[in-house]
Amino acid sequence: MAYRVAVVGATGAVGREIIKTLVERNFPASDVIALASGRSAGAEISFGDKKVLTVRNLDTFDFTGTDFGLFSPGASVSAIHAPRAAAAGCVVIDNTSQFRMDADVPLVVPEVNPQDLRWFAKRNIIANPNCSTIQMVVALKPLHDEFKIKRVVVSTYQSVSGAGKEGMDELFNHTKSSFVYEQSPPQQFTKEIAFNCIPHIDKFMDDGSTKEEWKMTMETKKILDPAIAVHATCVRVPVFIGHGEAVNVEFENPVTAGEARAILRDAPGVEVVDVREDGGYVTPLECAGEDAVFVSRIRKDPTVQHGLSFWCVSDNLRKGAALNAVQIAETMIAMNLLVKKAA
């Protein structure tokens, strides 16, 4: 069977990565439609080596007959067009934050909670979690199943691609300006990003946390277990692609670093690279273009009764966005959740 797929926000960094991922995974698509705002209509995007997609206007597109809508246009645009697509019978898989905490919208990472896809039909919308949440819960899930997590404290080191193409351009321009002694005032970020770290992603909330930190807390609870306590500090760093996270976990049951390492080696979507020597770990630079969540530096935390710390990295444009969305569609097909006649 083959499926008609619309990629919404096709000209953005995540949209282009979705199209690339559909090709690489040989997704069973009879037709792929690239959609974006009217100002991008008519632009061309490569689909594999031989095919080119002409971008069409999202505002005038009729989703009738479209099986999947893979959305990454920004929350305000999804708020308008995702319900419109869903009402036309298209299954929306939305990368934005618009629907994530809606009680009747499943928030899904296929390696973690695929069972939640069974109630997608309440709205015909499925939410893709925040990129930093996705990689963390992929690593936490097998450990939670075995040892039961009580508390997570995480510090993130998030690349500028999390702010889109504009964020990547700003890092490039700021870096270039620093070498020619020019001033380049920040626009996408609150301070200069080149050779700097900014402990501020998204808006500040009343309790002093940022919206990004709140997302990691609430999304982890919705996906993994509402009883888990989560405290996050999210930092933007001068890296183009790939998020890093230093994760500290307190469990209810005894656990050793060796046990955790063995469990993670068998976990879906995880690759363990943990050698206690120079270079025996994975960095954001090395994970760019890769599908896995890489876990390194697994070690005992002696300050609590049952504690571990580890380092994890992942390509935020792939597993943190595009790949996870495509995997959701693939999982729905494998679970026979989408009624589709043979093409």
Order of helices and strands: EHEEEEEHEEHEHHEEHEHEEH
Tell me the strand percentage band: 15-25%
Largest sheet: 6 strands, parallel
Alpha carbon gap, first and last residue: 6 Å
CATH fold descriptor of the largest domain: Dihydrodipicolinate Reductase, domain 2
Coarse morphology = globular
Q: What is the SS-derived class?
A: alpha/beta
CATH class of the largest domain: Alpha Beta
Mean pLDDT: 96
**How many strand segments?**
14
CATH superfamily of the largest domain: Dihydrodipicolinate Reductase, domain 2
Radius of gyration: 20 Å
In which range does the helix fraction lie?
Answer: 25-40%
How many DSSP helices?
8
The largest sheet has its strands arranged as: 5-2-1-6-7-8
Low-confidence stretches: none
